[in-house]
Amino acid sequence: SNNNNNNSVTDEEVNALRDTIEQRDNEIRILVAKLRRERQIHTSDTNTNSDSSSDDRNAQQHKGESTTTVSMRRKELTAEEKRKYLEEFKKENEAYAMLEKTKHTLKTLYTQAQTLGQEVQQAKDIISDIKSHIQQHQQDHFQQNVQSGLESGVVEDKELSSMHEDLAVCQTTYKEKVGHLRSLKREIDHLKHLFEKQKMQFQQQFQTYLDSHTVT
């Protein structure tokens, strides 16, 4: 099912497109009703004021023509019909292909960032653990040296040296992973911005496509 998700628009995106279409339909219906009421009002005014000037009559005529133009009937589509138009549009639209490519890349980068974030946390925990061991080791050996009458640093401590080497390696690895993670986040932020821009472009093109197939 993951492959299907990578190759198709998500349910949220499909629902967003449907909401946009329904909102557009509602706006047009409200506009048409408003214009019809205005035409009725002006028609009534013309009947009661038969001595209106020619300019008023021309204005009435212009409003009537505008109403006729805007009142082009839009074919009402069922949810199934809208889905059908969407699937047809996706097959022939280049913007959709780019949208899917960006979405797939984003998902891949998200997975990489998640894995890398876990590795960074693991490295951080190891560093903390090594430092704790070093501190405990130094305290234990300091007490032993005091009891033996030896000054600190007189006796070579191979175990302590080994822990310091391990700490240096882990710290280097940690810094490299943090740098890589920051770079990934910058790339993800850039692609998220690009994805939103491409999605908006696709929605606008689909609305134009839908208008051309539903206005009668």
Descriptive account of the structure:
With 216 residues, this protein is an all-alpha fold. Helices cover 86% and strands 0% of the residues. It is built from 6 helices and no strands. Helix 5 (94-148) packs antiparallel against helix 6 (158-214). The two termini are 39 Å apart. The model is unreliable at 1-8 and 65-71 (pLDDT under 50).
Question: Which helices and strands, and how do they pair?
Answer:
Blueprint: H1 2-6, H2 11-48, H3 54-70, H4 79-92, H5 94-148, H6 158-214
Helix pairs in contact: 2-3, 5-6
Which series of helices and strands comes N to C?
A: HHHHHH
Number of helices: 6
- Residue share in β-strands: under 5%
| Residue windows where pLDDT falls under 50 for at least 5 positions | 1-8, 65-71
Instruction: Return the average pLDDT rounded to an integer.
Output: 78
Please bin the fraction of helical residues: over 70%
Main sheet, how many strands, which sense, barrel? none
- Structural category is mainly alpha
Distance between the termini: 39 Å
Q: How many E strands?
A: 0
Query: What's the gyration radius in Å?
Result: 35 Å
